[in-house]
Amino acid sequence: MTTTAEKAAALTALHVPGDPLIVVNVWDAMTARIVARTPGVRALATASHAVAFSLGVDDGERMSVDLALSAAARITAATELPVSVDFERGYAPDAEGVRDNVARLIEAGAAGLNIEDSLDGATSALRPIDEAAARVAAARAAADAAGVPLAINARTDTLAGAPEAWGEAIERANAYVDAGATSIFMLGLGTEKQVADAVAEVRAPVAVFARPGYLSLERLAELGVGRISFGPQVLGLTLKHLAEATAQLTARGEYPAELGYRYEL
Questions:
Q1: Of 71, 80, 143, 196, whose CB neighbour count within 10 A is largest?
Q2: What is the maximal distance between C-alpha atoms in the chain?
Q3: Per the domain annotation, does 142 fall within a domain?
Q4: Is 147 part of any domain?
Q5: Does 265 fall in a domain?
Q6: Residue 69: domain span
Q7: Over its length of 265 residues, how does the chain's per-residue pLDDT go in tens digits?
Q8: Are strands 183-186 and 44-45 parallel, antiparallel or unpaired?
Q9: Is 220 within 8 Å of 195 (Cβ atoms)?
């Protein structure tokens, strides 16, 4: 794959219900290279939380759009694999701004993106459904204008804020599919039944956020999930190992075996 359009088409095709795309989220060029070189990895995805924290900024669009785009460009330049960028709420107050920013994101090399329907990323407040769908449509319009079949993973936070609002969650999901989303990232799918019902009712592959104590990766595949990600937990995993190694070294303990890990740019 040499063009962004080819990578975007490949990324969309990797969202297969029952054979889910598993993305171990990255946040800079180095983590992108390490993950991309790992056997079995087919595509990469960023986590905005991890990207922001690596730059010393809080999550929730505290990065400027220019900072977010420059981070995305460094990551896409580090690998030949397709990269899906967590683009939060589009870094714009309206759909026209989303379209402009997504056009720039495609120029930065993104093959796909996440775009969410929350109002601020910190509360359970959501945009009106028509407005949220218009922003997904704006992302699709930018992709069409660029000739890139962008993989749009539209996120709805409905169940995360209101676990009982199943009907609204499905309505939103399918509205985003109709607006041009190629997969739906549903936060708050807490049970096996909810996962199975979402797979049955959403008219596109369903993406989930997996974590310790959740359904196993094998079970999620069996239920028909199309994409599994881990968000900023991968940054947590990395920092935990770093903290443990630091404690071991400063206590004059054994050299951690990972000090011998060989890596290249």
A1: 143
A2: 60
A3: yes
A4: yes
A5: no
A6: 4-260
A7: 689 999 999 999 999 999 999 999 999 999 999 999 999 999 999 999 999 999 999 998 999 999 999 999 999 999 999 999 999 999 999 999 999 999 999 999 999 999 999 998 656 799 999 999 999 999 999 999 999 999 999 999 999 999 999 999 999 999 999 999 999 999 999 999 999 999 999 999 999 999 999 999 999 999 999 999 999 999 999 999 999 999 999 999 999 999 998 887 7
A8: unpaired
A9: yes
DSSP SS3 for 46 = strand
Task: Tell the residue number behind the tokens 């920013």, with chain if given.
Answer: 101
* pTM: predicted TM-score of the whole model, two decimal places: 0.95
If phi > 0 it is left, if psi is from -120 to 50 it is alpha, else beta; for residue 240 that is alpha
The pair of structure tokens assigned to 133 is 């769908």
Residue 9 lies in a domain: yes
Place of tokens 């093959």: 111
Cα–Cα distance, 198 to 190 (Å, whole number): 11
Q: Which residues contact 210 (CB under 8 A, 6 or more apart)?
A: 217, 220, 228, 229, 230
Closest to 192 (Cα-Cα) out of 171, 172, 222: 222
Number of domains making up the chain: 1
